[in-house]
Each structure stands twice: as structure tokens, then as C-alpha cells.
């Protein structure tokens, strides 16, 4: 047995009984207790986690954590908001011989920029750092969290101060499909564009809801993100997000209607016409049909208008 594997431990079901744990529906928690399944999830983080640095989000009773440690990770940091899981995670930390650190904190507030040593950092345009973010995310935080992390990808902050750190995250199947949907796909949406212009995104596999405790009403998609060396749209995140959000606001209507809400009424028609003339995009297209190049053209046109009109970038529809 490899010295990096964990010693024999109580099963996850025994841990849950021992500490009286249960998933809280209001927190959208779902446990994955099958260690063969947690091993499969972790396998998609990379061919080999031996010597890697991993931050796990929302470990719960520690099923995925065990799989990460058993694959030989050098340092694992887990961030769990629910203090009920602290005793079971601390027991796992004691068994890990110093490789596991446990934080009782909210990942939306947790500073990830100093959790790993400086030596793991890589140049953004060089090799990938051996840093991974893994999480079986509660459904109620998965979308705001990935948007926040995509913003961090764009400015190389948070977990991306180490370089192009990879992410392996779970979402409701529908959200996973949105994140990976190409143009003209029924699920093509704002998250599709925001994720794919910054990362290589792959829907690895789907976990049946019945594999979780308690059983959710939906299946779960496992999605892997690898940040690109250069974004496909080379403009500030907030500007791109604003344009994309507006264009997809009226998802099945002409994209002109979405572009119009970028502008106050007195200048709406004139500047909307300028956006489409400058970008070369057909205003009668619907948002899901637009290619990344066409969305890039709209963003560039909007950026040029904002440069010319002070304060326009701060205008928000409604």
C-alpha cells in the first residue's frame, strides 16, 4: 500500500450515524456515499493527483476528500460552511498525516490566494500549475460561485494567482449542459459564453440523482474547466458579462432587442444601430445562434461606444 493512502477508516454511512449527520434540504446538500463514484469523480480532475495541491469546496462528510487523499495529493484544503461536518473532517485530517487542512468558512468569502506555497505558482502562459479546485457544490451556490470564479480567471486572482488552476465541479445537469452548450444548442445561454470564452469546458459525465443521499429531483453533471491562455474576448469581465447578459435577456427574440437595453431610451435606436453596423452581426438573429466571434464583435462595438460616452458603462436597464 502506498504510504500516501489513508489508513482504514469508518465508512461514510458509519460516520453519518456516528455524528448524527443529515443533508439539509434548505442548503441544497446532497451526499455521495459510494467511494467508487467519488473515485470516478476525482479521476476526471487529472490523470494523476500525486503531489498535487487541491482545494475542495463543500466536502460534507468527506467522501470526495478521501478519494483526493487516496490519489496522493500533497496538500488538500477543504472549505466547509456547515460546522456539523467539522468533527468528521477533523478525524480525516488526523488520519491524513498533515496533508489535510479543514476550514469552517463560506467559500464565497474565503481567501484562496495564500493557501498554497509560492513554489506552486506557474506563469499564466506557461505550464499548468498542479493546483485543482474540486467541489460537489450545493445547487443554490453553484451558479453564482462559478461566475465569481470565472471573473477571477479573467483577472488572475483568487485561486488563479497560482496560474491556470483547473476546476472540477458538480452542477445540476441542466446547468452543466448550459455551461458546455455550443451555438444553436437548446441550452446555449449566458453561462455558456462566459465559461467558454475563458476556459476549455468539458461535461465529463452525469451522476444519476439516485446515487445521492437524499435523492435530488435532478441528475448531476460533472464539469471540468481549464483556463485558456488568452480569453476569446479580450475585454474586461464586467463589460463582457453585461453585453452577454443583455443579449440573452430576450433569449428567443431578435438579439437587437437585447442590445437595445444596453442604452438609455434617448440614444437607444442610434447606438443599437451603430452596434450592429460596427460588428456586422445580423440584428434579426437570436442570441443562442451567435458564434463567439459574433459576440466578440458586439462586445468590441459596445466597448468603443463606452469609451466615447462617459458613464455609459454604468447604465443598467431597470
Compact description:
This protein has 318 residues and is an alpha/beta fold. Helices cover 36% and strands 15% of the residues. Strands 4-3-2-5-6-9-7 form a 7-stranded mixed sheet, with helices on both faces. The chain has a two-stranded antiparallel sheet with strand order 1-8.
Strand order of the largest sheet: 4-3-2-5-6-9-7
Beta content: 15-25%
- Strand count, sense and closure of the main sheet? 7 strands, mixed
- Average pLDDT over all residues: 92
User: Mind telling me the C-alpha Rg?
Assistant: 22 Å
How do the helices and strands follow one another from N- to C-terminus? HEHEHEHEEHEHHEEEHHHH
Helix content: 25-40%
Strand count: 9
Oligomer: single chain
Described by the principal axes of the CA atoms, the overall outline is: elongated
Task: Give your account of this protein's structure.
The protein is of the alpha/beta class. It is built from eleven helices and nine strands. The chain has helices at 12-19, 35-43, 63-70, 86-95, 139-155, 173-180, 190-196, 237-247, 255-260, 265-279, 292-308; strands spanning 31-32, 53-57, 75-80, 100-104, 131-135, 166-172, 199-207, 212-213, 220-227. Strands 4-3-2-5-6-9-7 form a seven-stranded mixed β-sheet, with helices on both faces. The radius of gyration is 22 Å and the shape is elongated. The chain starts with 11 loop residues before the first helix and ends in a 10-residue tail after the last helix. The relative contact order is 0.10. The model has no long low-confidence stretch (mean pLDDT 92).
Amino acid at each position: 500500500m502506498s504510504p500516501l493512502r489513508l489508513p482504514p477508516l469508518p465508512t461514510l454511512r458509519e460516520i453519518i450515524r456516528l455524528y448524527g449527520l443529515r443533508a439539509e434540504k434548505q442548503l441544497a446538500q446532497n451526499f455521495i456515499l459510494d467511494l467508487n463514484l467519488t473515485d470516478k469523480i476525482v479521476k476526471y480532475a487529472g490523470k494523476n493527483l500525486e503531489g498535487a495541491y487541491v482545494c475542495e469546496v463543500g466536502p460534507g462528510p468527506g467522501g470526495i476528500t478521501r478519494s483526493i487523499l487516496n490519489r496522493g495529493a500533497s496538500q488538500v484544503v477543504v472549505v466547509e460552511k456547515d460546522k456539523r461536518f467539522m468533527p468528521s473532517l477533523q478525524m480525516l485530517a488526523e488520519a491524513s498525516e498533515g496533508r489535510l487542512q479543514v476550514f469552517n468558512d463560506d467559500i464565497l468569502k474565503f481567501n484562496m490566494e495564500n493557501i498554497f506555497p509560492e513554489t506552486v505558482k506557474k506563469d499564466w502562459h506557461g505550464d499548468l500549475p498542479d493546483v485543482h479546485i474540486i467541489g460537489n457544490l450545493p445547487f443554490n451556490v453553484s451558479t453564482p460561485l462559478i461566475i465569481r470564479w470565472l471573473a477571477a480567471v479573467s483577472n488572475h486572482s483568487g485561486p488563479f494567482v497560482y496560474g491556470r488552476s483547473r476546476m472540477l465541479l458538480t452542477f445540476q445537469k441542466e446547468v452543466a449542459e448550459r455551461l458546455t452548450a455550443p451555438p444553436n444548442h437548446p441550452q446555449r445561454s449566458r453561462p455558456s459564453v462566459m465559461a467558454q470564452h475563458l476556459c476549455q469546458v468539458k461535461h465529463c459525465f452525469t451522476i444519476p440523482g439516485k446515487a445521492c443521499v437524499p435523492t435530488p429531483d435532478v441528475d448531476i453533471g460533472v464539469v471540468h474547466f481549464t483556463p485558456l491562455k488568452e480569453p476569446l474576448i479580450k475585454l474586461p469581465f464586467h463589460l463582457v458579462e453585461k453585453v452577454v447578459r443583455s443579449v440573452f435577456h430576450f433569449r428567443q427574440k431578435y438579439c437587437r432587442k437585447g442590445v437595445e437595453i444596453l442604452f438609455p431610451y434617448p440614444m437607444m435606436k442610434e447606438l443599437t444601430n451603430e452596434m450592429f453596423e460596427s460588428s456586422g452581426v445580423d440584428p434579426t438573429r437570436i442570441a443562442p445562434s451567435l458564434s463567439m466571434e459574433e459576440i466578440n464583435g458586439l462586445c468590441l462595438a459596445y466597448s468603443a461606444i463606452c469609451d466615447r460616452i462617459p458613464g455609459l458603462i454604468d447604465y443598467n436597464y431597470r
